[in-house]
Amino acid sequence: MIELSNVSKTYGSGAKAVHALKNVHLAIPKGAIHGVIGLSGAGKSTLIRCVNLLERPTEGSVVVDGRDITRLGAAELNRARHRIGMIFQHFNLLTTRTVFDNVALPLELAGERKAAIKRRVAPLLDMVGLADKAGMYPAQLSGGQKQRVAIARALASDPQVLLCDEATSALDPQTTSAILELLRDINVKLGITILLITHEMEVVKSICHRVSLISNGELVEDADVGDFFTAPRTDLGRDFLNDFLELTPPKELTARLLEAPGEHTHPVVRLTFSGDAVSTPLISRLARECDVDVSILQAKVESIQERTLGLMIAELLGDTDQTRKAMEYLKAHQLQVEVLGHVQRDV
Ligand SMILES: Nc1ncnc2c1ncn2[C@@H]1O[C@H](COP(=O)(O)OP(=O)(O)OP(=O)(O)O)[C@@H](O)[C@H]1O
């Protein structure tokens, strides 16, 4: 449905050139919900704006529903854009128009008749749960209600694709989940393909099927959401995951962590396990089979889509041979083992 091939975007030129996107390839099938995550300035907004040509790529093609929209003339591009809805972090509603008139706007611009507009807007307001707010003005609405109006407006021209630019970033957690629920509903009921950009892993976890990670204008990961949350492939992916899961070693331990092992040190490890490993009593088996003690400092079990993910930070207490054997044992049982550092052993 959406296919970006070799897309690059450079702002400015010469010494002031900013390479916001570099050779991006991205394929999103019809009906998918795809998230793009990245740090501030990574290129998320530029990427999503290239999909409806709010930004024109410097290079590459953007194919939406089989047509390369970078090659369309002005009139054709305008028509193509009608089938690509977009919602924004700050809603972008017209303050002097009522809720009804905001939703009606794209239809008015398309030259629809009043009666047809009325027939179209009423069910849309119903769908987003604002049937009783048609005559109100944006200033009289909460943030969540404003975003619902923006969603109804984006759906007015019957789009095949909905682009969401940090659509929940200005909302509190409860309102965020209600809006995400609505987006999921729209995806299921109307079969609309959704591309969203966010810096919130919670958004990705809640509704996305796949996720891409963007860093300095490059897509560095592109994975099924379950895979990304259980086994990110890059350091940045792991940082996002650990921040989201809040699984960082306690401060007093970090202060004592040494980078390299010493004569009387033992390793502190972060263990990530999924699938069968979650329900297997691996830690007690590890203690028995490798003759080590395991001191658990933090542990957490998360449900991500249909999969369970376990995380743990632990000290492995034993001599060098025992702890090495313990790490091999864990890896052999499909756990990811990351050595966070080493702490001095009490002797
Ligand atoms: N119109 C512009 N002119 C020049 N540089 C720009 C322009 N828009 C974005 N940039 C630069 O391009 C890079 C990517 O910006 P972009 O807004 O796409 O990132 P982002 O990931 O969406 O960031 P944020 O999460 O902070 O919104 C940044 O270095 C930014 O400063």
TrEMBL record:
<keyword id="KW-0029">Amino-acid transport</keyword>
<keyword id="KW-0547">Nucleotide-binding</keyword>
<dbReference type="InterPro" id="IPR045865">
    <property type="entry name" value="ACT-like_dom_sf"/>
</dbReference>
<dbReference type="InterPro" id="IPR050086">
    <property type="entry name" value="MetN_ABC_transporter-like"/>
</dbReference>
<keyword id="KW-1003">Cell membrane</keyword>
<dbReference type="InterPro" id="IPR018449">
    <property type="entry name" value="NIL_domain"/>
</dbReference>
<dbReference type="Pfam" id="PF09383">
    <property type="entry name" value="NIL"/>
</dbReference>
<dbReference type="InterPro" id="IPR003593">
    <property type="entry name" value="AAA+_ATPase"/>
</dbReference>
<keyword id="KW-0472">Membrane</keyword>
<dbReference type="InterPro" id="IPR027417">
    <property type="entry name" value="P-loop_NTPase"/>
</dbReference>
<keyword id="KW-0813">Transport</keyword>
<keyword id="KW-0067">ATP-binding</keyword>
<dbReference type="InterPro" id="IPR003439">
    <property type="entry name" value="ABC_transporter-like_ATP-bd"/>
</dbReference>
<keyword id="KW-1278">Translocase</keyword>
<feature type="domain" description="ABC transporter">
    <location>
        <begin position="2"/>
        <end position="241"/>
    </location>
</feature>
<dbReference type="InterPro" id="IPR041701">
    <property type="entry name" value="MetN_ABC"/>
</dbReference>
<protein>
    <submittedName>
        <fullName>Methionine ABC transporter ATP-binding protein</fullName>
    </submittedName>
</protein>
<dbReference type="GO" id="GO:0005524">
    <property type="term" value="F:ATP binding"/>
</dbReference>
<dbReference type="Pfam" id="PF00005">
    <property type="entry name" value="ABC_tran"/>
</dbReference>
<dbReference type="InterPro" id="IPR017871">
    <property type="entry name" value="ABC_transporter-like_CS"/>
</dbReference>
